C-alpha cells in the first residue's frame, strides 16, 4: 500500500527527482502505519531504484532521477551467470536493430542524416590515422547505433540501445573490435546503412543492419570463447582417459 502509492506519485511526476520525502514519522501518520512498515516500504522503493536513502541528521529519503543503471546491472548479472545465453543475446540484437533501423528509414530527416554522417566521418578519421585506436572507433560505432535509435523517436528503443551498447557492450573490453580489417568492414556497413536511409528503403536498411549485427555477433562469440575460463572437468576427463589406457 505504502510502496504503491509513493511509486505512483513518482511515476506520475507528482514527486520529482531530488524531492525529499516526509520523515518516517510523518509518513507513518499519513499512511496510518507503524514506523517499521514505513521503513520496510522505503527499503523496497530504494531497491527499485526510485529513491535513495541518506543516513545521518541531514539524511532522509530522496527521489532519484530515473536511468538505466539498475536495469543494466541486473541484465549484466544475467549475462555473467549465463541465465541469458550468448545466442539469445545475439538473436535479440539482430531482431531489435533490424527492426528499429527499418523504422529509422521511414522517419529519418536531413538533420538526422547529417548527424549520422558526422559520426561516420569521425570513424573514418580514426581508421585513417590510427590502426590501433580501437576504443575511439568503437565509441563512434556506439554513437551511430544510439543515433539510429533516436531517429525512430521512440524512447523505448533509445533507452534499450543505450543500455545495450554503452553500458553493457561498451563497458566490456572483450566485446571491443581490435582487428583493423573488421573495423574497416564495420565502417563500410555503417556507410551502406546511411545510403539505405537516404533512399528511405526500410527493407534494405533492415537487411544491412541485421547483417552488420550478425557479423559482429560472430566476432563477439569468438571473443567470448577466447575469454572463457577453462573447463574444470577437462583435466579430470584427461586423467581418467590416461588411467583407462
Summarize the structure.
71% of the residues lie in helices and 3% in strands. By secondary structure, the protein is mostly helical. It is elongated and about 65 Å long.
Describe the structure.
This protein is about 70% helix and about 5% strand. The protein folds into two domains: about 60 residues, Winged helix-like DNA-binding domain superfamily/Winged helix DNA-binding domain (Arc Repressor Mutant, subunit A); about 160 residues, Up-down Bundle (Four Helix Bundle (Hemerythrin (Met), subunit A)), CATH 1.20.120.530. A hairpin with a 5-residue loop joins β1 and β2. It is elongated. A two-stranded antiparallel sheet has the order 1-2. It is mostly helical and about 240 residues long. It is built from eleven helices and two strands, in the order αααββαααααααα. InterPro entries: GntR_C, TF_FadR/GntR_C, Tscrpt_reg_HTH_GntR, WH-like_DNA-bd_sf, WH_DNA-bd_sf. This is GntR family transcriptional regulator. Pfam families: FCD (PF07729), GntR (PF00392).
